[in-house]
Amino acid sequence: MWHIMAAILGLMAWGHGVQAETLPEVVVRSTPIIEENQVDKYASPASIVSRQQMDDLNAQDLTTALRRTPGVTISRFNPIGAFGGAEGGGVFIRGLGTSRPGGEVKTLIDGVPLLMGVWNHPLLDLIAIDPAERIQVFKSPQPQNFGNALAAVNLVPALQRDEGFATRLQVQGGSASTAIQKIEHGGRQHNFAYTVNQSYRRSSGHRELADGRTTAFSANTQYQWDSGWYLGAFGLYTDNQAHDPGVEGKEATTRQGKYTTYAALGILTLGHQLEAVQGTVKCFANSGQGAWRGQQPPDGDTISAFSVWGLQVQETLTPWEGGELRLGLDWESTDGEVDFTKANGDKSSWEGDSFQVLSPSAAISHTFGDPSAWFLTPSAGMRLVQHSSLGARTAPHAGIVAGYGPTQIHTRYSRGILFPGLEVQVFSQAVLPALGQSWKKLAPEVLDHFEIGLRHDFGTVARAEVALFRDRGQDRYVVVPAPPFPPRYANVEDFTIRGVELALTLWPTDALSLFGSAAFLDTDPNDLPYAPHTSLSFGTTWQFLEHWRLSLDGQHVASMTVGSQARRAYVENTKEVDAATVINARLGYGWGWEQLHGEIFVAVENLFDADYEFQPGYPMPGTTALVGLDLRF
Questions:
Q1: CA dist 363 → 10, 103, 313, 327, 379 (Å)
Q2: Is the pLDDT of residue 296 over 70?
Q3: What is the mean pLDDT of residues 239-263?
Q4: If we measure between CA atoms, which residue out of 565, 563, 566, 550 comes closest to residue 604?
Q5: What mean pLDDT, rounded, does the chain reach?
Q6: What does the H/E/C string look like for 316-343?
Q7: 349-394 pLDDT, tens per residue?
Q8: Which long-range contacts does 427-436 make (Cβ < 8 Å, 24+ apart)?
Q9: For a FRET experiment, which of 226, 231, 429, 431 has its CA 20 to 30 Å from that of 137?
């Protein structure tokens, strides 16, 4: 690995002999790891990861983009590609997101859901990060923003902002025969703007059958009239595959084959930004497939196809000075089919009824005082989540944001509602027929969230933040096995998660920024997966010697329970992984010549060759390096 670093450093030094422009002074005012923790008028916090942080982390997918975000834990098998049939690719938020099938965390693009519709949980390879201008991590229920989920990750697509045209090309290569290629082109002419992306990634992996491949194409366009109305269209297509390398030393009996995915998403948006009202109407549709082939006997192949379509309407009004009224209506329909082929050749299939969810919402807030001096903003609202087969429940929320000068405090209560998806039909009809119609008696899962947070800015030099929260989950649905016969679905499980998150951001000079955070979780029961008692993250970005940029990121995670939280009553989670500390680095040399600007960089993961894993028997790579070239013109 070090000879790769020596080669790239030599190439960077050779660049000093080229007649390159002197780059303008770079002011690093953004932060490592995350851009910021935002709090909206409804006292709802969100961690924002911008494109700059994704570049500094050399992120290739959602897990690597969010791996250092406070309160977020990840899982993966392979360097490239997320194996969708088990724990080979997952993002978990404050202990949420571990249930399979089903899942408390929803993945969104521009607010529109994109996930494995049949099994009602994310497939991370479907969520290409290349089109994203930023990623929003909603760590708790936020009924004014989304429904039928307990937490969410939303990718906001990029759109060319400046007049003219811009192109970006990036290539990388290195350890484990990893090759990465990305291209982005955007333009803006008067009222019309667009951005298109294409990416390809592959790797043979750090061990046998730890390979993966991802491919993505996307386009985002918008036409805006002088009247304040605009029409936008977004499209995404992804095609991916990843193997399960199996438990080390027991590969032949534990490998679960290959998982391939593809999906297509389309969003059509009609919006307006007027003086006292702004809003959007979105029509969307997505469809795709997850093909799990080569599972251990008696299983064989499971081919799941899904389609989702729907409508989202949101209107924000300012009917009086300081006041805001937000109205929304979401409707979506999900259907799909599954084909099963056992190892002995037996075949079966499932194609059930579709599920629809209708979800109107309303919220109101008013700001007293002056946001630049002192202010107080109370808010309240309600969302109704109505399932086509399982009834309806309400999700209220209320909060207060207050501030004086550099200090801001927020406190909030919100309720999350999560209905079962098609997975309960699939299991009842095709996997365990003895369940019968018991799924029709299920109620939604409910999460009551309480949070209080404080932020203080020390001029332009530092920012300190603290958040305390408590989540009370009720009515988690599981299969209650016989005896007595027959087994049945029931809402019988509860859990509690208490936590504290601390963050400190420093800007000691214009060219240096530092970030550190700590998250502490206390769960009941104490075997909730991917909810470590302690996780520490840090990062730094340093622009030095005019052309050089160094980014470091690291994390220490305490020992924790891992694996899926089974949808089966009375089952304990017994898999654990040891504590680990992993540090990554990225060093780049930037240069410019007329309209061409570029960077040559080396990105090193697991800098100190730590032994760590997200699943027992699935060691992650040791020290690896990628060398890259990033051109912009």
A1: 58, 26, 14, 7, 7
A2: yes
A3: 96
A4: 550
A5: 93
A6: EECCCCCEEEEEEEEEEEEEEEEEEECC
A7: 999 889 999 999 999 999 999 988 899 999 999 999 999 999 999 9
A8: 427/101, 427/479, 428/489, 429/350, 429/352, 430/338, 430/340, 430/348, 430/349, 430/350, 432/479, 432/487, 434/482, 434/485, 434/486, 434/487, 435/479, 435/486, 435/487, 435/488, 435/489, 436/486, 436/488
A9: 231
Percentage with pLDDT > 70 across the chain: 95
344, two tokens: 């002995």
Helices (H) and strands (E) in the chain, counts: 5, 36
Three-state DSSP state, 620: coil
Please list, in sequence order, all residues whose beta carbon lies within 8 angstroms of the beta carbon of residue 69, skipping any fewer than 6 positions away: 33, 34, 47, 49, 137, 537
Is the full-model pTM beyond 0.85?
A: yes
Domain ranges of the chain: 2-632
Summarised one tens digit per residue, pLDDT across range 543-583 is 999 999 999 999 999 999 998 888 888 888 999 999 999 99
Q: Which tens digit of pLDDT belongs to each residue from 594-633?
A: 889 999 999 999 999 999 999 999 999 999 999 999 999 9
> Around Cβ 373, how many Cβ atoms within 10 Å?
9
Residue among 175, 181, 180, 262 at smallest CA distance from 210: 175
Does residue 141 have a cis peptide bond before it, meaning omega lies within 30 degrees of 0? no
Nearest to 242 by CA among 260, 255, 256, 254: 260
Backbone torsions φ then ψ of 34, nearest 5 degrees: -130, 155
Distance, CA of 242 to CA of 259 (rounded, Å): 5
Is residue 509 scored above 80 in pLDDT? yes
Domain spanning 2-632, CATH class: mainly beta
For residue 242, give the nearest of 67, 87, 73 by alpha carbon.
Answer: 87
